[in-house]
């Protein structure tokens, strides 16, 4: 990746970023997503509505978010919080680059990743701290490799 600065005739607080690539890949999408979230405030807390209350989860404590139909499970360092919603809505709130979607059903915090192992019948399994595991879709393996610098 090449990065360069170029002076332009813009307002004092204006910045224009252009991303050039031969094709629009997952890597380009992640870069664009990161740039879009750059201006926004970094989310350090996520409000989660449970059946009886609203809970605030610190993103640093969040190990994984998993969805089963429309039931969300937020795995933290000390509990599992159940809620209702869509994974894509959670993904937009988790703007930090260490949160990576690994399947249609799960987003993991890469800070808690211990290993990626072969599972049954050719699947991959992400093993996270605190004994949490989830299936990794082959479609997302390249994003994980890129994050790890492999």
Automatic annotation (TrEMBL):
PANTHER family: STAGE 0 SPORULATION PROTEIN A HOMOLOG, TRANSCRIPTIONAL REGULATOR-RELATED. Keywords: DNA-binding. It comes from Limosilactobacillus antri DSM 16041. InterPro entries: LytR-like, LytTR_DNA-bd_dom. Residues 46-150 form the HTH LytTR-type domain. One of its GO terms (molecular function) is DNA binding. Pfam families: LytTR. This is LytTr DNA-binding domain protein. The lineage of its organism: Bacteria, Bacillati, Bacillota, Bacilli, Lactobacillales. PROSITE patterns: HTH_LYTTR.
């Amino acid at each position: 990746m090449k990065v360069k600065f170029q002076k332009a005739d813009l307002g004092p607080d204006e910045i224009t970023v252009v991303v050039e690539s031969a094709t629009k890949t997952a890597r380009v999408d992640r870069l664009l997503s990161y740039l879009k979230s750059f201006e926004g405030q970094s989310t350090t807390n996520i409000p989660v509505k449970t059946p009886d209350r609203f809970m605030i989860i610190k993103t640093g404590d969040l190990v994984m978010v998993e969805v089963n139909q429309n039931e969300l499970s937020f795995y933290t360092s000390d509990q599992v919080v159940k809620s209702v919603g869509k994974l894509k809505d959670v993904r937009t709130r988790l703007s930090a680059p260490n949160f990576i979607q690994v399947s249609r059903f799960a987003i993991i915090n890469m800070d808690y990743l211990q290993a990626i192992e072969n599972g049954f019948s050719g699947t991959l399994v992400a093993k996270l701290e605190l004994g949490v595991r989830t299936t990794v879709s082959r479609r997302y393996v390249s994003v994980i490799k890129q994050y790890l610098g492999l």
